[in-house]
Amino acid sequence: MALSEQEQIRRDKLNEIKALGINPYPAEAYEVKDTTQSIEENFEEGKKVSLAGRLMARRIQGKASFAELQDAAGRIQIYFNRDEICPGEDKNKYNELYKRLLDIGDFIGIEGQLFTTQVGEKTVMVKDFTLLSKSLKPLPLPKTDSDGNIHDGFTDAEMRYRQRYADLAVNPHVKEIFYKRSKLFTAMRNFFNDRGYFEVETPILQPIPGGAAARPFITQHNALNIPLYMRIANELYLKRLIVGGFDGVYEFSKNFRNEGMDRTHNPEFTAMEIYVAYKDYHWMMEFTEQLLEHCAREVNGTTKAIFNGQEIDFKAPYPRITMRDAILEHTGFDIKDKTEEELRKAAKNMDLAVDETMGKGKLIDEIFGEKCENQYVQPTFIIDYPKEMSPLTKMHRSEEGVTERFELMVCGKEIANAYSELNDPIDQRERFEEQLKLSEKGDDEAMFIDQDFLRALEYGMPPTAGLGIGMDRLIMFLTDQQSIQEVLFFPQMKPEKKKVELTEDEKELLALLTTSEAYDLEEIKEKSGLSNKKWDKITKSLRKKELINIEKTDEGLIIQKA
Question: Which residue intervals of 350-424 are DSSP H helices?
Fold first, then answer.
């Protein structure tokens, strides 16, 4: 393993610390009686304290030093004085261990006494300190110049997501997002519990990926010798519990969908689903309004939130508009009673990318998603979805061809989906069979037929209202984060590319391929000025390092950066 100069220096210090007879990673518990927050809130001159955290800054001036200690709650100034720490003749603990061998990022425990400096800053005078963990890699700390300007901040998104531990250590404001995320879950859980609903857990590995139209992850159970699917939704299991006699059940579930990744989608995400017996989607709309108003207040102290420069107000009530009216308003096209071919033709006329595998439901979804969704910034219920889009939803009580379903749109994105749940087992079987036909046409997101769920419905399920909320997307809106990666501690990332050494000729060839656009190979070869032998050697090396691609096309050979 190649070490940087700073990493090697720290390892040398580690060996010196051990030579002094000090364990840089002690096993003993360190008694922490105070935190930076408790000191701030209950400051008392002269009070004795004991706390621990990272050493984050130092200003050493001979036999005295001001430093900063950071714990989970914040930072506090600490003051080291050689004669306070080493009252006897032996000054090595200060001169050697503190001044020379400790580094920024090391974890230490300190015992001391509170005092206020001449400029009024609350400070801990250190009486004794203990090294708790030696940091072998320098933290990517930003630098502040004399004018207060910050330079070299740890701001590269990819690096921050890959090294979230470093991100949290040097960018304390990031923690606030996750504190608010925790508040959201607590607020929602309390809202449900106060109303007597029961929190449950359902399987993550499932024999059939049911409850949503999505492409699943597949794995193999060796002992049973059967394929299993990572959960795409928990809906069908929660409904089984309603069949079993629970009046209201909910679950915060990790779901997995083997689909694309972008700023609002991660293959692993958190959803909340709740099902309440003897209710319908009208009741659930009011329930959802009350829930989100409550959550916004608990998380931010107000019903309002700023997202991407726009003020969003979660205060109830929210407008309601039918799917048909939304599409008619924004495209001029009326989807009512249209055939699949008419819908496909209309979508093509709107310049939408559609194909022959898409049934009526997907075509309507594509039209709404591309032409209407972004029109709804404030919380808005889109209601009464066509039957083809809603295979688990009860038919509308008065409107033919549509279902009793709503989605809640905020800032042009769906954050909640709800139904009057379909509890007619015969109708449900027919809907599943329609999904099977779509699958046979090539739709790899069509639902499977879940025979056990149909059997459960045949035992009888009471009228039920169900609601699902994307928790990651909701916290994005409540904390003004434009990317889902910002609200996940450890988002899914592409494999980290290993650092590779390049020759000057290799660097020059890559510089010619400045974009991902494909180039004619002969043209680039001529432009590079390389001999045939050298060209072959360099391109072979770059292909082996997975930095370029060379492909044969109808127009000839092309070359591009990988």
Answer: 360-371
